[in-house]
Amino acid sequence: MIITTIKELRTYLDTHRQSGKTIGFVPTMGFLHEGHLSLIRRAKAENDIVVMSDFVNPTQFAPNEDFESYPRNIEQDEQLAVGAGADIVFYPSVQEMYPTDSSTFVEVMGDITKVLCGASRPSHFRGVTTVVAMLFNIVQPHRAYFGQKDAQQAAVLIKMVNDLHMNIELIVCPIVREEDGLAMSSRNIYLSADERAQAVVLNQALLKAKAAFENGETDVQKLIGIISGKINEAPLAHIDYVNIYEYPSLKTTEEIGAKALAAVAVKFGKTRLIDNIILKNKCN
User: Residue 179: which residues within 8 A CB-CB, separation 6 or more?
Assistant: First the structure.
């Protein structure tokens, strides 16, 4: 069932909440793929009611980014979401979420939002935290589900939830990949056949670094060199960033300790893809 207004959604959820049912929430920007569906299935297994939002949020796009062309298909999304276990697809308009006099934002400050994607997209995470805080306030879920593919986003949202004492359990689920290792993304449809074939180099590069780490290499710059070298073997790949930070703090480190995030952003033509892998010391 699709609900388009905040009032209607709150009325529906209040009834179930008062009867003691738990609510799981999966925020998305639509154009669903198996990665999204895995989150919905997890939410359904752990909650009585599952809400999935389908909202392409304008405040997390810069003026030169793909907000207008971002893929959308609400009919297909509803069918897939309900099939995976969603009870409600919340599909608000931009006007519903951002009235004309809307001027309030939620922002996580510090390095956690300035590195990786935050370095080249300075307004992005303010848009993400604002819309997710709004959605949390509207849905008031017991649990919310996010994918590890957007590892920085997950770290920022965990920080927001903790800092603002939100009574929500935020659950981060593993990356879902195509058979050849490419992380599933709504933007993958933009890739040409040649770009799609070469895009698998992202996961290959990260796995190569993980293997080196597990064989004892902990020097961050050497591991970054391994990742960059592998990606540069793909002629169509243009690196935006390759970095390794402590996780989930995203603090700079020269030597990997207990847990780190190796993350990449690479352009193939006009399509920007991200991927990552966790490097974790087996002794921790």
Answer: none
How far from chain centre, in Å, is Cα 98?
22
| Structural contact between residues 133 and 106, judged by C-beta atoms closer than 8 angstroms | yes
Q: Please enumerate in sequence order all residues whose Cβ is within 8 A of that of 140, keeping only pairs 6 or more positions apart, or say none.
A: 13, 17, 23
What's the confidence (pLDDT) of residue 77?
A: 96
Own/partner contacts of 82-85, CB < 8 Å, gap of 24 or more, are 82/1, 83/37, 84/37, 84/40, 84/41, 84/44, 85/40, 85/41, 85/43, 85/44, 85/45, 85/50
Say what the pLDDT of residue 282 is. Answer: 72
Q: Give the bridge partners for 24, in sequence order.
A: 50, 143
Question: pLDDT tens digits, residue range 63-118?
Answer: 878 888 888 999 999 999 999 999 999 999 999 999 988 899 999 999 999 999 99
Q: How far apart are CA 96 and CA 99, in angstroms?
A: 6
- The pTM (predicted TM-score) of the whole model is 0.93
Measured CA to CA in angstroms, residue 85 lies from 25, 42, 48 at distances of 12, 9, 10
- Alpha-carbon gap, residue 264 to 65, rounded angstroms: 19
Beta-strand ranges (E) seen in the chain are: 2-3, 23-28, 49-54, 88-90, 143-147, 169-173, 237-246, 259-268, 271-280
Catalytic residues: 36
* Matching residue, tokens 């951002």: 98
| Predicted pLDDT at 63 | 83
